[in-house]
C-alpha cells in the first residue's frame, strides 16, 4: 500500500469516528441507533485505522497533507509515518473489538436513565480526538485534538453522574488533564520559540541549547506523564478509569494512555531529538517508582476495575522504564541497545493495549452478568461463564508476563536491553540500571500475585453471593470480542519476531537505526544480538510445552488408575467448608501488605454489627494524597484566600485594578 | 583493569575487601548486640587477613606485624572487652531492631554507589586496583557513620565508630602498603584507649540516665531542663 | 554455536531432559537419607521417593465436587513447565539447543508459569488452606524474584550473555579467578533456591501443620496421579536449582564437547557435586529451624542484599575503568 493511501485510510477512520458521534445524536428518539449504527461505525473506524497503521508501518515512508481548516496563517497539517502508523494500529485493534463488544453491552443500558446520546456521541469524539493527536503535524492541531480527547473522555467518566463518586472522579480527571495540557502547551512554546513556528517540521529542525532542551523535556515529561498516570501524578487514574462504562475503561486504559506515550515519544525522541542521558535516568526512576507502586496498589484493591486501573499505572511504568533505558543508551552512543529498549517499550505498549483491553472487557462482562465489581462477592465464575473464564485466564497469564504469552516477550526484551548495561561507561549507571531492573522483577512477581488473586477469587472457588451464583454467560458479541483480543495476545506471544519486524520501521525512522539482526534468523528465533548472547524461541517453547504435555497426559492415564472419582473436599478433615470460609481477596493480599506496610496508609477499624458481632474494616489509602495533593490543595486555597481580598464588591475598585494592570503592561511593553 | 588480569594474591585482597564491605552491611542491620559484636570481630579478622595478604604479595615485613596486631586487637581484645561490658550491663539478650531496616540498607547501597562515583577521577590505569579498593574502604567508613546515625544504642554506636576505623585501616593498607610502623602502633594504642574510655562512659551514661539509648542524652541539655522548669 | 541445532545435539538434549525426571527423586531420597542419618535415624532407602511416586500413580485420583476443570489441568501444566525449565539447564554438556530455545530469563518465566498454576490450583477447591498457601507462596516468590534476577544479572554481566551454556562456557574458559561477585551471587542464589524449593527455613516439605504449610497447603486436595505429578515437579525443581548452583558456580567437569568420555565425566562430576550439595542441604535443614512466615522477608532481603553486593562488587571491583 502506498503511504498516501494509508493517510487517506486514516482520514477515513477519523471521519467514521465523527460519523459515529453524529449518528448517536438520533439516540434520544431511537435508542437502538447506538447499537445498530454507531457501534458498527466504530468497528469500521477501527478496521480503517488498522489498515492505515499497517500500511504506514510496511511502507516505512511518510506522507503529509494540509487541511483547509484552522487559523488563516496556520492551517492544520497532518502527517502519517511509521510512529503514527504503529499507534494507529494500536488504537484500531482495540477499537475494532469494541465495535463487536459494544452493541451487546449498550443493550443493557437502553432501558436505563443514562443518556445514550452522550455515550455514543462522546465515544465517537473521543476516538476522533485520539486519532487526530496521532496524525497531527503541528502543535495547534495536536493541542486541539488533545483537548477534544480529554474533554470527551471527561464526559464519558461522568457518564453515570448520579453517583457522587463518579462526579468527583470526573472533576479530578478534568483538573489533572488541564494541568497536564498546560504543561504540554508550555513545552510546545519552548520548542516553537527556537524553531520557526508551530509546525512539527520546523520544531524538528530547531537547534535547542541543552538547558532549554532540558526545560522542554521537563515540561513535556510532566504533561504526558500526568496523562499516562505516572507516580506521583497517578491519583486521578484509579478514580476515573473505573467510573466509565467498561468498554470505555478499556479504551482509556488500553489506548488513551498510549496516546500519551505517543506524545512523549514524538516530542522527546523526534522533535527535541538530541536526547541527554540524565533525562533517561529521570524517566527510569519515575518509571520504576510507577511500576512498583502501581503493582503494590493493584494487589491491595478489591474492586476489580480499580485494580485494573492501578495495574495500568504499573504497565505504563514498565513502558517508561524501557523508554528511559533507550534514552540512556542512545545518549551514551550505543544505538543498538537503545533501539532494543525502544522496541521493548513499543511492544509493551501494544501488549498492554491488548491484554488490558481484554481484562476490562472481561470485567465488563462480569459486571453485565452479575452487576458486581467487588471481588469479595465473586467466586466460581469459571463454571458459570466458561468462555469469559478462559479468555480472562489468557489475559491474566499475559499480563503476568508468563511464557509463551505476549507480556513475557516485552518483559524479556526490556531485560535484555537492561542487560546491555555493561556497555555503559559510567559505573554509577552500570549499577543503577540493574537496580531498576530488580524493581522490574519485583513488579513482575507482584503482578503475578495480583492476577492469581483476581483469577482465584473471581473465577475459582465457590460463589460468595447469590447473584454471582446465578450468573449467566454474556451474549455472543461480548464473548467474541474477548476471544479476538485473547487470540491476539497469544499470537503476539508466539510470533514476536514477525511483530518486531513490523515495529522495526519505527526505530528506523525515529532513531535512524533499528534492530538489523532481530529477524535475520527466521521467524522461529528472537535473537537481539547473537545466539551466544541471548535468544528466545517462543514457537519452540510453546511447541515443546504442547509436545511434552501430549506425552505426559496419555502416559499418566495409561499407567495409573483410569477413574477419577468426585468427592467432598478433604480440607485436612475439617467440617465441610462453606463459601464464607474461603480466603478473601483482602486476606490474600495481607502478607504483602504487611511486608510493604511503609507504603500504604492503612486504617483498620472495628465496627459493631447489628447482631452484636464485630465487623473488621480495612481501608487502604494512597500516601501520595497526604504527601502531595492535600498540601498542594491547601496551598492553592491559601493563595485563593489572599486573592479574595481583591473582591470588595465595589465596581470602581475593580476598574482601578484594571487601570493599574493596564499601566504595568504598557510599561513592560515599552521597556 | 579487569579482575582476571590481576595476580592471584591481589584478587584475594579484592575478595576479602568485598567481604569486609558485606560485614559492614551485617553490622548495620544486625539487631542483636552480641551478634553485632561477632560481626565486628569477623570484620577485624578480615582486615587483618587483608594486611597479611598485602604483606605476602608486597613482601613488606612490618605489615606481618601489623596484621598480627590487628588480629589481636580488633578480632580478639576489643570484641572480648565489649562482650564483657555487655554482660556487665546485662544486655546479652538486648535486641534493638532498626526502625526501617530496608531503608537503612538502601541508604547504605546508595553510599556504596556514591563512593564508587567519588573515586572515579582516579582514572589512571595503574591506579585502578587501588581506586577500587579505596571505593570499598570509603564505603565502609560511610556505612560506619550511617550506623552511628541510625542506631540509638551506645554500644552499637561504638561498633559503628570502630568499623569506621576498620575502613580507614583498610584504605591505608591496600592503597599505600601500610603506614609506618610507629604510626600504626600509635593508632592501635589510641583505639585501645578509646575502647577503655568508652567502657567507662557506658557505665557513666547508664548511671546517670538509666539507659544506653543515646536519644535520651538530650535530657541533659540545659535548655530542655529550663523549658521544663518554666512550665508550671 | 551454529552447529548446536544439529540432530545429534538435540538427541543429547533429549537425554538430558529425560535424566532430570529420572534423577530428581534420587536427589530427594538422598537428602532425606542424609538428614535421617544426621538425626541418628536409619531412614528409608534413597529409592523410597520412586516407590512413593509409583504408589501414587497407581492409586485412584479423587477430585472435589467444587473443583473446576483447571484443577485437573494444573498438575500437568506444573509438571510440563517445570520439566521444560529443567531441560534448558546444562546438566552434562554446555552445547545444549534447549538453552538456545530458552535462556535463563525464560527459565525463570517457565518456573513462574508453574508457580501461578500451582497457586491457582490451590485456590480452586475453595478451602481456606488452599488460599492461604497460594497467598503465602506468591508473597515469597515476589520477594525471591528480584534477588534471583540480581544474581543472574551479575553472572550475565560478567559473561555478557543470558544463555546458560555461554555463561558456563565463559567461566570454564577463564583461568581461575577469585570473583567476589560470584561469591555473593552464589550465596544469594542459594538462599533464593531454598525459598523457591520450599525447604527449611522457609517452608517445610514434610509438614502438615496447618499454620506452617505453604507448598503442602496448595496441594492438599490432590491425590493419586495428580499428587504424583505435583510431587515429582517439586523434586525436579529441587534438582533444577541444585544443578543450576552446581554447574554455574562450580563448572568443573561439565563437558564442552559431545565425546562420550567427556559426557560420562560430566555425569560423574554433576552427581558428585549434587551429592555434596544435597548433603549440605540436609545438614542445614538439621541445624536450622523453620522461620515464622514474617521472618521470611528478612531472609529474602538478605538474599537480595547479597545479590546486590555481588552486582556492586562486579561493577566496582571487577571491571575497572
From TrEMBL, chain A:
Subcellular location per the Swiss-Prot or TrEMBL entry: Cell membrane; Membrane
Pfam families found in the cross-reference section: Proton_antipo_M
The organism's taxonomic lineage, starting at the top: Bacteria, Pseudomonadati, Pseudomonadota, Gammaproteobacteria, Chromatiales
A molecular function GO annotation: oxidoreductase activity
Record has Cell inner membrane as a keyword: no
Topology with respect to the bilayer: Multi-pass membrane protein
Record has Acetylation as a keyword: no
Protein name per its UniProtKB record: NADH dehydrogenase (Quinone)
Residue ranges of coiled coil: none
Residue intervals passing through the bilayer: 6-28, 40-62, 82-104, 116-134, 140-159, 171-191, 211-235, 247-265, 277-300, 307-330, 342-367, 387-405, 432-460, 481-503, 536-556, 651-669
Enzyme class: oxidoreductase
Gene Ontology terms: biological process: ATP synthesis coupled electron transport
Alphabetized InterPro entries for the sequence: ComplexI-like_HydComp, NADH_UbQ_OxRdtase, ND/Mrp_TM
EC number, UniProt record: 1.6.99.5
Cellular component GO terms held in the UniProt record: plasma membrane
Boundaries of every NADH:quinone oxidoreductase/Mrp antiporter transmembrane domain copy: 136-422
Keywords: Cell membrane, Membrane, Oxidoreductase, Transmembrane, Transmembrane helix
TrEMBL record, chain B:
Membrane-spanning intervals of the chain: 12-29, 36-57, 63-82, 103-123, 129-147, 154-175, 181-203
Major location category of this protein: membrane
Annotated keywords: Cell membrane, Membrane, Transmembrane, Transmembrane helix
GO cellular component: plasma membrane
Superkingdom of origin organism: Bacteria
Cross-referenced InterPro entries: HyfE-like (IPR038730)
Compartmental location: Cell membrane
Membrane topology field: Multi-pass membrane protein
PANTHER family according to UniProt: HYDROGENASE-4 COMPONENT E
Protein name per the record: Hydrogenase subunit
UniProtKB/TrEMBL annotation, chain C:
Keyword Transmembrane tagged: yes
Membrane topology: Multi-pass membrane protein
Transmembrane portions of the chain: 12-31, 73-92, 104-126, 138-156, 176-195, 238-255, 261-284, 296-317
Compartment(s) of residence: Membrane
Main location: membrane
GO CC field: plasma membrane
Family annotation (Pfam families): NADHdh (PF00146)
Key words, A-Z: Membrane, Transmembrane, Transmembrane helix
Domain of life: Bacteria
Name recorded for this polypeptide: Hydrogenase subunit
Amino acid at each position: 500500500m502506498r503511504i498516501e493511501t494509508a493517510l487517506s485510510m486514516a482520514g477515513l477512520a477519523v471521519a467514521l469516528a465523527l460519523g459515529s458521534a453524529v449518528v448517536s445524536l438520533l439516540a434520544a428518539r431511537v435508542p437502538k441507533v447506538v447499537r445498530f449504527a454507531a457501534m458498527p461505525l466504530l468497528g469500521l473506524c477501527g478496521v480503517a485505522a488498522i489498515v492505515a497503521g499497517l500500511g504506514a508501518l510496511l511502507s516505512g515512508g511518510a506522507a503529509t497533507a494540509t487541511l483547509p481548516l484552522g487559523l488563516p496563517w496556520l492551517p492544520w497539517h497532518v502527517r502519517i509515518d511509521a510512529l503514527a502508523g504503529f499507534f494507529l494500529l494500536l488504537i484500531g485493534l482495540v477499537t475494532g473489538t469494541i465495535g463487536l463488544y459494544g452493541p451487546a453491552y449498550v443493550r443493557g443500558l437502553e432501558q436505563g436513565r443514562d443518556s445514550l446520546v452522550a455515550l455514543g456521541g462522546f465515544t465517537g469524539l473521543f476516538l476522533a480526538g485520539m486519532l487526530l493527536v496521532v496524525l497531527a503535524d503541528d502543535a495547534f492541531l495536536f493541542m486541539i485534538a488533545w483537548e477534544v480527547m480529554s474533554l470527551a473522555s471527561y464526559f464519558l467518566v461522568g457518564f453515570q453522574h448520579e453517583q457522587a463518586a463518579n462526579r468527583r472522579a470526573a472533576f479530578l480527571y478534568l483538573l489533572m488533564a488541564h494541568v497536564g495540557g498546560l504543561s504540554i502547551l508550555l513545552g510546545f512554546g519552548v520548542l516553537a520559540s527556537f524553531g520557526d513556528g508551530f509546525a512539527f517540521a520546523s520544531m524538528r529542525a530547531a537547534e535547542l541549547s541543552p538547558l532549554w532542551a532540558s526545560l522542554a523535556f521537563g515540561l513535556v515529561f510532566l504533561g504526558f506523564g500526568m496523562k499516562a498516570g505516572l507516580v506521583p501524578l497517578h491519583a486521578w487514574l484509579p478514580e476515573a478509569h473505573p467510573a466509565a462504562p467498561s468498554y470505555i475503561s478499556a479504551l482509556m486504559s488500553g489506548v488513551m494512555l498510549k496516546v500519551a506515550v505517543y506524545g512523549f515519544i514524538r516530542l522527546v525522541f523526534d522533535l527535541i531529538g538530541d536526547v541527554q542521558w540524565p533525562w533517561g535516568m529521570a524517566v527510569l526512576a519515575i518509571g520504576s517508582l510507577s511500576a512498583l507502586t502501581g503493582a503494590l496498589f493493584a494487589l491491595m484493591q478489591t474492586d476489580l476495575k480499580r485494580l485494573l486501573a492501578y495495574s495500568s499505572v504499573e504497565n505504563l511504568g514498565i513502558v517508561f522504564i524501557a523508554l528511559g533505558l533507550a534514552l540512556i543508551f542512545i545518549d551514551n552512543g550505543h544505538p543498538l541497545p537503545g533501539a532494543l529498549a525502544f522496541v521493548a517499550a513499543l511492544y509493551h505498549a501494544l501488549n498492554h493495549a491488548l491484554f488490558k483491553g481484554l481484562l476490562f472487557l472481561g470485567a465488563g462482562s462480569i459486571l453485565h452478568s452479575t452487576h458486581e465489581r467487588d471481588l469479595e462477592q465473586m467466586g466460581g465464575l469459571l463454571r458459570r461463564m466458561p468462555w469469559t473464564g478462559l479468555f480472562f485466564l489468557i489475559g491474566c497469564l499475559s499480563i503476568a508476563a508468563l511464557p509463551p504469552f505476549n507480556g513475557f516477550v516485552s518483559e524479556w526484551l526490556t531485560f535484555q536491553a537492561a542487560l546491555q548495561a555493561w556497555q555503559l561507561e559510567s559505573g554509577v549507571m552500570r549499577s543503577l540500571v540493574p537496580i531498576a531492573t530488580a524493581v522490574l522483577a519485583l513488579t513482575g512477581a507482584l503482578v503475578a500475585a495480583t492476577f492469581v488473586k483476581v483469577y482465584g477469587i473471581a473465577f475459582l472457588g465457590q460463589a460468595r453471593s447469590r447473584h454471582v451464583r446465578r450468573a449467566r454467560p454474556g451474549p455472543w458479541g461480548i464473548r467474541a470480542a474477548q476471544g479476538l483480543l485473547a487470540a491476539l495476545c497469544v499470537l503476539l506471544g508466539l510470533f514476536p519476531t514477525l511483530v518486531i519486524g513490523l515495529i522495526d520501521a519505527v526505530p528506523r525512522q525515529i532513531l535512524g537505526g533499528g534492530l538489523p539482526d532481530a529477524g535475520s534468523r527466521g521467524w522461529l528465533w528472537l535473537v537481539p544480538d547473537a545466539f551466544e548472547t541471548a535468544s528466545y524461541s517462543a514457537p519452540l517453547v510453546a511447541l515443546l510445552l504442547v509436545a511434552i504435555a501430549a506425552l505426559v497426559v496419555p502416559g499418566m492415564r495409561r499407567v495409573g488408575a483410569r477413574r477419577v472419582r468426585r468427592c467432598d473436599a478433604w480440607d485436612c478433615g475439617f467440617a465441610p467448608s462453606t463459601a464464607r470460609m474461603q480466603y478473601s481477596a483482602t486476606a490474600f493480599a495481607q502478607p504483602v501488605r504487611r511486608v510493604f506496610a511503609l507504603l500504604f496508609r492503612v486504617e483498620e477499624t472495628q465496627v459493631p454489627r447489628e447482631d452484636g458481632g464485630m465487623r473488621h474494616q480495612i481501608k487502604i489509602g494512597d500516601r501520595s494524597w497526604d504527601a502531595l495533593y492535600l498540601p498542594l490543595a491547601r496551598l492553592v486555597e491559601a493563595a485563593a484566600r489572599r486573592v479574595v481580598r481583591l473582591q470588595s464588591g465595589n465596581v470602581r475598585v475593580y476598574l482601578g485594578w484594571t487601570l493599574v494592570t493596564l499601566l504595568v503592561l504598557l510599561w513592560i511593553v515599552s521597556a | 583493569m579487569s579482575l582476571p588480569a590481576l595476580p592471584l594474591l591481589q584478587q584475594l585482597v579484592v575478595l576479602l575487601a568485598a567481604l569486609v564491605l558485606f560485614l559492614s552491611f551485617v553490622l548495620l542491620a544486625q539487631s542483636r548486640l552480641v551478634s553485632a559484636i561477632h560481626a565486628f570481630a569477623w570484620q577485624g579478622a578480615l582486615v587483618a587477613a587483608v594486611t597479611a595478604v598485602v604483606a605476602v604479595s608486597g613482601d613488606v615485613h612490618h605489615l606481618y606485624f601489623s596484621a598480627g596486631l590487628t588480629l589481636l586487637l580488633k578480632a580478639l581484645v576489643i570484641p572480648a572487652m565489649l562482650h564483657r561490658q555487655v554482660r556487665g550491663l546485662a544486655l546479652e539478650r538486648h535486641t534493638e531492631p532498626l526502625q526501617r531496616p530496608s531503608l537503612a540498607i538502601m541508604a547504605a547501597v546508595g553510599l556504596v554507589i556514591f563512593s564508587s562515583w567519588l573515586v572515579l577521577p582516579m582514572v589512571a590505569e595503574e591506579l585502578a586496583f587501588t581506586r577500587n579498593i579505596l571505593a570499598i574502604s570509603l564505603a565502609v567508613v560511610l556505612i560506619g557513620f550511617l550506623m552511628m546515625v541510625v542506631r540509638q544504642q551506645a554500644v552499637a554506636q561504638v561498633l559503628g565508630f570502630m568499623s569506621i576505623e576498620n575502613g580507614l585501616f583498610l584504605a591505608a593498607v591496600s592503597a599505600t602498603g601500610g603506614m609506618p610502623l610507629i604510626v600504626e602502633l600509635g593508632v592501635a594504642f589510641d583505639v585501645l584507649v578509646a575502647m577503655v574510655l568508652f567502657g567507662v562512659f557506658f557505665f557513666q551514661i547508664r548511671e546517670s540516665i538509666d539507659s544506653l539509648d543515646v536519644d535520651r542524652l538530650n535530657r541533659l541539655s540545659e535548655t530542655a531542663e529550663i523549658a521544663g522548669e518554666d512550665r508550671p | 554455536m551454529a552447529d548446536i541445532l544439529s540432530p545429534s545435539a538435540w538427541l543429547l538434549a533429549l537425554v538430558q531432559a529425560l535424566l532430570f525426571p529420572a534423577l530428581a527423586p534420587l536427589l530427594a531420597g538422598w537428602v532425606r537419607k542424609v538428614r535421617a542419618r544426621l538425626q541418628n535415624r536409619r531412614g528409608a532407602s534413597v529409592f523410597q521417593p520412586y516407590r512413593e511416586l509409583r504408589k501414587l500413580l497407581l492409586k485412584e485420583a479423587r477430585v472435589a465436587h467444587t473443583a473446576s476443570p483447571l484443577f485437573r489441568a494444573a498438575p500437568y501444566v506444573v509438571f510440563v513447565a517445570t520439566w521444560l525449565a529443567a531441560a534448558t539447564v546444562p546438566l552434562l554438556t554446555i552445547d545444549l539447543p534447549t538453552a538456545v530455545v530458552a535462556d535463563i530469563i525464560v527459565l525463570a518465566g517457565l518456573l513462574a508459569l508453574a508457580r501461578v498454576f500451582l497457586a491457582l490450583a490451590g485456590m480452586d477447591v475453595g478451602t481456606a488452606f488452599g488460599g492461604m498457601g497460594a497467598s503465602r507462596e506468591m508473597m515469597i516468590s515476589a520477594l525471591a524474584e528480584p534477588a534471583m534476577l540480581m544474581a543472574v544479572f551479575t553472572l550475565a554481566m560478567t559473561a555478557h550473555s543470558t544463555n546458560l551454556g555461554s555463561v558456563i562456557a565463559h567461566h570454564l574458559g577463564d583461568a581461575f579467578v577469585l570473583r567476589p561477585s560470584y561469591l555473593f551471587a552464589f550465596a544469594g542464589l542459594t538462599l533464593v533456591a531454598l525459598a523457591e524449593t520450599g525447604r527449611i527455613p522457609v517452608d517445610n516439605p514434610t509438614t502438615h501443620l496447618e499454620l506452617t504449610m505453604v507448598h503442602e497447603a496448595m496441594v492438599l486436595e490432590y491425590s493419586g496421579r495428580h499428587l504424583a505429578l505435583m510431587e515429582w515437579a517439586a523434586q525436579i525443581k529441587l534438582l533444577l536449582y541444585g544443578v543450576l548452583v552446581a554447574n554455574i558456580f562450580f563448572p568443573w567437569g561439565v563437558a564442552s564437547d559431545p565425546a562420550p568420555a567427556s559426557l560420562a565425566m560430566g555425569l560423574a562430576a554433576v552427581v558428585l557435586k549434587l551429592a555434596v550439595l544435597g548433603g549440605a542441604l540436609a545438614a542445614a535443614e538439621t541445624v536450622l529451624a523453620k522461620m515464622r512466615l514474617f521472618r521470611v522477608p528478612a531472609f529474602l532481603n538478605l538474599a537480595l542484599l547479597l545479590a546486590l553486593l555481588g552486582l556492586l562488587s562486579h561493577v566496582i571491583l571487577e571491571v575497572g575503568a
